[in-house]
Amino acid sequence: MTQNITLPRELEEQLIHQETALIAAQQHRDFSTVDALLAEDFHEIGSIGRFYTKVEVLEAIRYVQILDYRLDQFRILPLGPGCVIVTYIATLWRTYRGQESASRSHRSSTWIQRGGTWRVIFHQATVLPLAP
Q: How far apart are alpha carbons 53 and 68 in whole angstroms?
């Protein structure tokens, strides 16, 4: 039997704030904040299906400049004590190695709590069509 887990509203807001802080840190080129929010054993499956480690993500984002972004439709899925999935739709306007582009994706991040600190251990993005 599956147990229904309810998170305190403050924790939901904190995790949404931290998810948003990850994108904002990338936009402001604050790589130390990105590093601090990702678990050491972090992994990602990018929107093109490539598998990344934390080190690879930190290197790759140095070549991306986020010009603007919009995050919406947040949902919180608690998995158990100290483990939560945050999903949302991200629309990003950016440059990559000088080329401007826009993208929209459905994203999910798995947040874990270790030593009283919440960090992302896994992230995945699935490409969506750009909204008209």
A: 25
- Structural domains in the chain? 9-128 (3.10.450.50)
φ, ψ of residue 2 to 5 degrees: the values are -85, 135
pTM of the model: 0.91
Q: What confidence tens digit (pLDDT) does each residue in 33-79 have?
A: 999 999 999 999 987 889 999 999 999 999 999 999 999 999 999 99
**Range list of H helices, 2-130:** 9-27, 31-37, 54-60
Q: CB within 8 A of 41, min separation 6: which ones?
A: 54, 121
